[in-house]
Every structure is written in C-alpha cells, then in structure tokens.
Amino acid sequence: MKKNLAIMLFSDRKYMFALGTFIINIKQFVKNYDSILIYNSDFSSEDEQNINKIDDKCIFIKYTFDDFIEEFNFDKDQIKNLDAIKRYSHISPVKFKMFTHLNEYKTIILFDTDMLLLSDINDILNDNYNIAWRDEQLISEKLTRSGYSIDKIKKIGLLDTYSKATTPNGGFIIINDNFDYMLAYNTAFNYFKKYFLIHPFLMGEITLGYVRFILNLNLFPVDHNIYNAFPNMINLKTKLIHFLGNYKPWNRQFIQYIYCQWIYNYIEYTMITGHKDSQVKIFDNIGEDFILKENNKEKWNKIFNINKFIYPSELKPRLDFEQKYFIFDYNDYLYYEILSPSWLFESYCCRMWIRGSYVCNNTI
Q1: Contact 40, 61 (CB under 8 A)
Q2: Does the pLDDT value for residue 176 go beyond 80?
C-alpha cells in the first residue's frame, strides 16, 4: 500500500547547514509526511546521522557525479567543465527523478533548501491536478535569455514545442500519482539524455516543462506571491519564500533581519547536530544596526533632497548614506565630516580632518 506524502530535497555537503535548517522549518509547517528523500552526492555516514537527529524520517539517496555519467552514458571530461554543472552540480538537472518515487508515495513535494516556510501549505495539497508549480517563461524565452539562439532551436526541430511549453521555477513542485508517471519519467529521461549536451543550462526545469507539455499534464499554477515568492514579491499572504541569487539569510544582514526565523532555525540546527558552518554569519545587534542605517539614509535623503542642503562645489561627497557622518573630500589630505542632526531644525556638527589628524569641530 502506498504512503501518502514524501518531501524531496537535493543537497551536497557544502550546503548541509541549509538542508538541516530547512528540515527544521518543514517540521514546523508541513504535517503528516511519511519521508524526506534527500538526494546527495557526498554525505558521510556521520552527516547522515546528524541530519537524522533532526528528523528520523530522512532517507538518503546517494547520487554521485560518476553515477550521473554512467546513467546517461555521457563523456566525463566533456561534462565536468560545463558551466551548468559547475554552477548547479550534477544533481539539480535530474529533478525529474521525482516521478519514480510515485511508485511508493501518492504525493511528492520538492523544495529547494534556500527557502523559508512562513505558514502551512495544506490548502493546495489535493488531487485536483497532476502537477503544481510556479509557472514562468516559455522554454524558447528561457533559452534565448541564456544566449541560445532561435536558429539553434530550429535546427534541433523543437521550435514549435519550445514556443508553447512553459518552464517552472524548480524550487517548489508538487506532483500527484493520478497520471502515468512512469511514462513521464521515461519521456524525461530520453529527452534529457538527448538534449542535455545541446543546451545544458537550467535543464532540470526545462525537462519538467517539456514533459508537462508533451503529456498535457494538468498543471495547477501556484500564485507566485504566495508560494515560491521571491523576497521582492512577498505580501501578507506569502507562505513560502525563495532566496534567489546571493541574497541569502546566512550572508546578508538585511535579509537576516527581515527573515530572522531562518537564523533561529539555524541555531536550532547547530544545537541538535553540533555543526556550525563558516558560511553562516550571525550578525550581532542586527536590529539596532539595520534600523540605524535605515534611519541615517532617511535623514540624509531629507537633508539633501528635501531641504536642499548646499555645499561648496570644491567638495566631493562620498555617497554613503548609511553612516552617521556624511563625508566630503576636499583633496588627498583634507576632508570634512558632517553629523546628521537628530531633528531637521537642529544645526549640523561639522568636523574637518587632515587624514589621520583631528583639526577642528564646529556647528553650522
């Protein structure tokens, strides 16, 4: 008899801290799952034991680079230098393996691990669709934006398909077992093997989009402001945030301040596993620092743009609006600092410096 629900995650040892932190988050908001399937390439037995301390429902599926090469009969030297592999690893393109797990589970939810759940997602867990994701661009648009020409698409005979089939954002995908999922897997496998070397970039998402179109699967397009929302798209209804690019809660102060729940989860991860990662910077006094910087920016904006602060043309302003002092350079040796007043009607405190030596202090 099939189990009801599995969570599917992809990781390597470098980002084990993000994996463990997100599993803590999953336990807070996803209820009644049977397993967490973790595809990885390099976890040690100790790593697995540590993650199992967080949740003993984790099942580890080792998938090495050599496994990838052997499965698709690729040339190893040709594959290892591809930007798509160096940037995203060999695991990310094979997200279509989720189809095979429908042999054992009625529903699979795939997440990226650079995410934060803010609420439960029970409202979209039903069998009214085959597949759910955040729908994005046409395949043709995604390829051309990454530098692949329309002429090349024509040569491989897929222009019509690529001009109609859309791709998902691969960070959040739900599939149910109410379609021929093994046909979907075989279609994906054959397509991937044939075309990966032709256009490898973002092939994991493109493969899923291709299969959905070819098999005419019933897609439920999730609201991109609620599920898989980028930080600049969130609103009061948002349930799942996806931290794209370099703006992660483990390395950006303002992201950590706004989404402090992530750092709380990370601290819990370190307490459970005993593992602290050097990639995670916990910013001290984050609230105070963030608010002071924002306050300074607001003040300087009012002073320069509303009050029209006038300064001698010989002075060159340093355009740093986050600091308490605003600095004007006069030459290589002499500069001035102006302290922003607490209130706009107050006078400004001006200090003149010779580099390395304090000279005078006046109000203006």
Answers
A1: yes
A2: yes
